[in-house]
Sequence to fold (167 residues):
Amino acid sequence: MNRVQLLVMVALPLLGCDQHKATPPGAPTSPPPEVASSPTAPANASERYIVPVERGAEFFRGHYEDAGQYFEPTNAQVRAFEDHLADFLQSSKDPGAGALAAKLHRYRRQFVGVVTDGKRLVFGNFFCSDVPATTPVIVDDGGDCYFNVFFDPTTGAFSKLIINGDA
Fold:
């Protein structure tokens, strides 16, 4: 075997090697990338949960009647929701809404896709407790630590803002 053949036989397998090490089984993986870069987005992606379609009813029931039909919101829909929420809150006629806008980045949030009257809406549930965003949160009181609102990604309109009261 000549030197060129030997070099090719040794070099070819090395070209296919990846310099990155594989993640060992059971090792923690990096968190998912941020959905939005808006100043109203949470600092950590784990504080935002886009609810999968199969868990939609679990996260929505208790807030309103069961929608019956759910979908998983897209990253673009969630980004649009977060990008426009502060403006909506500041212009809302609800007297407590404006104060929420300044501290939106502190809230954990859950986004559920619901179909009501044939419209695909994104329901946003916002809370400032330490409950993981992947756990359904339904609170009757709690003041402005808890609020929810619907967003129509087709029109960009918000509706049905509910800011919890104090017991």
